[in-house]
Design a protein that fits this description.
single chain; 85% helix
Length: 233
Amino acid sequence: MLGALLIFGKKERGDTILISSLAFAAGVMLCVSISDLIPESFSTLEKYLPFIPMLCVILIGINIGIILSNYIEEKVAKVENSSSLYKIGIISMLAIILHNIPEGIATYISCENNFHLGLKLTIAIALHNIPEGISISIPIYYATKSKKKALCYTMISGLSEVVGAIIAFLFLKNLTNDIFMGFLYSTIAGIMMTISFKELLPTSFSYQKPTKTIFYFIFGILFMLISHFLLSI
């Protein structure tokens, strides 16, 4: 919903907001993956698996991220050829809903097992969702000229995170163990790194303001490192 607030701003500021939010989210997600999720996964799985299989789990997560990304790009490309902003917004919403449900599951289960890690994962996912809100609200708003529709569709995609948490609470919380959590952390890390390098950063660089992209990317990393330090006190 924070991303959707862009529709209330001045149009000429849109590029700056997109560049900064995409790069910042990329830095946040990359930092959480490398400094938290992967180490937590390794410490959980080391008594069950040797090092190489643990790396393979991360590669599985990366491949899942690539498959999802390519599928979404293919669908959006077909829609763009039809010059329909409204369809772009709808497809973005549906794709993000499918992406957000497992994120909600992962966040709930992470908080149940390790509150500090779950909190950092929550922050990373929340910041990552801001540009997702932009990607839904802007096409819907410019296609329909309706702020109400843009906000409504963005809210639906955001609530899918809650649906994922409810699913985890009702059906999955008693089925978790160290192996499951280790695989989950590694898979999420792989997906997050893929999203950062394949989607968020390239899109931010595409606006041809590399200095801003690099600045906000580094700022996102520093933000999470400082958060990590404060949470460890």
